[in-house]
Write a structure and sequence with these properties.
about 280 residues, four-stranded antiparallel beta sheet, 6 helices
Amino acid sequence: MIARHETHLDRIDIWSALAAPLPAGVISWRQDGRTIARDGRYLGRFVAYIEANTVRERLDAVVPGEWDLTLELLPAVVGLDEDANQGACSFKARLQILGVIREDVGTGKDYKQAATDAFKRAAVRFGIAHELYAYEQNWVQMDGDGKFARPVEDPAAAYERRYGRSTPAIAGSAQDAVTRAQETPRLTPAAEDTRPAQRSLDDVRTTDEPTCPKCGGRVWDNRLTKRNPKAPDYKCRDRSCDGVIWPPKGDAAKADKADTAEKGERVEKAERVEKAEAETEEIPF
């Protein structure tokens, strides 16, 4: 019995080490979607991401020789939303670690991009880089709206300035994650198969924010930025979930449109106040 207990603790340490927050230096930012124009400025939404090599290095460091990846080419799927970032090809990744298997699908413009996307998505199922889903929306001013437009500010610096931190609040060291796992019992991935994927921000939703109709997680609010009025108003933040909330019809649509307009006015007012404060700070004394 003692030997089995020690083995269980070792497994907890392994899963915790895999899910430990990544160092800030390996996290990059890329633009997601098209540049939009608002109040005479061009804005682009940026999302945090990591390279596939970062996932491989985490696996080799924690479970060297104990993991295996299998990729299966899938037919391309064309989305209904014209603004959706659908790829030309898709892969299904099957990642096995210590006998536990996780699968997910990735898309891309070519085989390499789709394969690495699938690999990273499958790794998230084990908790690797899960903190990337805890980032808030990061809108950064662009120098134009053309194909080669560039941000006028480093997205990482813009996020830190807006939210007061460069990483989500869940960040910490790998050793802290192992210590917490030893103090608080956790289920192994095999026991979590029947549970929906956990989200670190589920408990801090705003009161008026809806939830994903499929997994119950947080959603992106696309009402102010979407170009196609028939596109979903909300989309699940979990990239592995396809839950969406479509625009309401009839009287409900009118009420929702009015609410969206009011929200847009509040956002624009907040941006004007922020801009005025920034201009005030630049006045020399």
